[in-house]
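User: Sequence in, structure out. Go.
Assistant: Echoing your sequence, followed by the structure tokens.
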Amino acid sequence: MNNMPDLSFSKLWNISFGFFGIQIAYALQSANISRIFSTLGADPHSLSYFWILPPLMGIIVQPIVGIFSDKTWTRFGRRIPYLFIGAIVAVFVMCMLPNAGSFGMTVQTAMIFGLASLMFLDTSINMAMQPFKMMVGDMVNEKQKGLAYSIQSFLCNAGSLAGYLFPFIFAMIGISNVAPKGVIPDSVIYAFYIGALILILCVIFTTVKVKEYPPHLYNRYHGINHEDAGQKTNIFALLKNAPKTFWTIGIVQFFCWMAFMFMWTYTNGSIALNCFDAPIVNAVIDGENRMVINSQSEEYQEAANWVGILFAVQAIGSVLWSIAIPLFKKISHAYVLSLMLGGIGFMSVSYIHDKYMLFISFMLIGCAWAAMLAIPFTLLTNSLKGGHLGTYLGLFNGTICVPQIVAASLGGIILKALTKEGSVAPEAQMLFLAGIFLITGALCVSFIKIDKK
């Protein structure tokens, strides 16, 4: 096996630059899905079920992209074709999803349209996102891998920052932030349009600038002989022979991604009630009278924009903390402390009623996010050989998607159990539970076993 050459900073940057646009799309989705479906008329107890689709599509799509791209060789590369196709579909769906309430459909039909759009959006985002992680594993040597994933983490957070702020900025410059019942405000619709434009431009840049290694060089750099290259992929055999790092990091991932799924689902309602005094109305849902937040109110829509600001603060905290992580002598210590700080941030949200004080909470949550973006993939790719690297990274995505599916499936049940009769759903308590999950994940870091390839 020949050592891969060092790459210049500009080449490392180009490999991941398209991730900036992908992450804008992902940020718009994560910050606005609960807002969109609440505006369409969804019950807060049912919000978590709308979130099952994104991780469900991820757990299906990403291993498929990994398996097929491991065996793909074209004049455009092995990963880039999947990246480009995913981006094209994402752009189209981003222009459709926020218009779910604008086509004169009934509430139920608008919900179905929105769910179908969400399914296609997350499928395409996953298809476009995974190749960036794979290209770092393909083209960057072990010495530079930490730097490469740090660049990817920076671009990820920068894209998140832009995506989270777009609706707030558009509302500030005078674009309407409220709309008739069942219609998504223009500030959100235009945010998705601009995000789609930036996404395709960034992906085109990476497609033009990055030249993946041809098969003979790739095999030489990764120690793959002719017989290995021709082997068929057996997922079950790969899982059976997966390094211990793969499984033990998965334990930590389970609790971390449960926590963040609760954040994406319940932050809007928590902030609207705790900090913006959004009005409560009596609504008949599934034949029952329930007290719910008025999602058409100006206070709710202002709170939803503020959630974008808070998520942007989280992204800033993540960028700053990602600079501190390499200063730790042991990466495991950085992992534990990051998750502990994030857990404290989540738990504090329940007790804060000043919207500006929440900046502290979300800065702490950003510490956990920084660790989750960089540390697991650095540890895993350093323990893998290149022959099935894409497949393993696709399968590893299961440690991200499965906990989100579990959280989305159980979220409504847990929230219903916490809701007192005649009271509004206490969504802030779900964020407190998210904090407990992160601290549990921190305690599980000690279980991680590090393999050397």
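User: And one key feature?
Assistant: The two ends are 12 Å apart (CA to CA).
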